[in-house]
Known about the structure:
Layout: H1 4-15, H2 21-38, H3 43-56, H4 61-104, E1 112-116, H5 121-129, E2 134-140, H6 147-157, E3 162-165, E4 179-182, E5 186-188, E6 192-196, H7 199-208, E7 213-216, E8 222-223, E9 235-237, E10 247-249, E11 251-255, E12 261-264, E13 267-270, H8 273-287
Helix pairs in contact: 1-2, 1-3, 2-4, 3-4, 4-5
Amino acid sequence: MLPRTFLRAVEEIRREELRGASWCAWRAATALLDLSLAGSLTHSLVDEAARLVEEANRSMASLYNVALIFRESYRAGGRRAAISALRSFLDYRSRSSGRIALSAQEAISAGSSIVTISYSSNVERILNAARDVLRRVYVAESRPGGEGIFLAKALRSRGIPATVVPDAALHTVLGEVDMVLVGADTVTLEPCLINKVGTLPLTLAAKSSRVPVVAVFESYKVHPSATCSDVEVVRRPYREVPYGAPEVPVFDKVPGELVTLQVTEYGIERFGSDELKRAYERFLDEVAPSLRRTP
Length: 295
């Protein structure tokens, strides 16, 4: 039987609405590591724990990959192998975000203005690193949830000129920006990007205005087998108006032709199937090479 501390961690991930896929991956990996360190594991316990992590938010490939690493490492080498793989993942996660921020600086020139949506920790790090050369950052409110407001406050506290824009008015600032910069909760190999709802209309408007769209994400957010249509989009009640609480999608599915470039821990590349597959394989090589051929 799984301990209450682990079940509470899964519930925390399931309810999370502000912090993104990177944080959820960290929370899942630490919970699985604590579970592994606490005592003996069995195949049925490992399978159940991995299943609960994956199902906590099926819109996030990071959870799929943490569950995969835990389950398959245990099957290959038992408890010791699972502990080693989880520790390796956590170390990798702590390093990859810094590598992404460093890589992204090549794409940001002096005097740039940027528009973004939601609250991506990667986007925040990139903008913080580039604060001396940024002219203006426009941040979508990102409703439902409104987490873009929190990102704008965080940026302004570091001296970055940040302006909050209503989601429906994002197209009005595209003539003033050099780039659309977005994070990702899941990326499929088609390619397809899954990110906060509102990302699709923003990227469509960006293409119409000929503004490049740059997606930033760690390679563990790539789903190695799911197609875009396979990804289950989380829906939640929209309670921000007093006229009812209809369930609305939390994420958009953005086709690859709307994304210009990807920035991962391995650098800046075209957003394409070959590039995504190569990045994912390099991630597995670093964290759990024995799983390289696991579907």
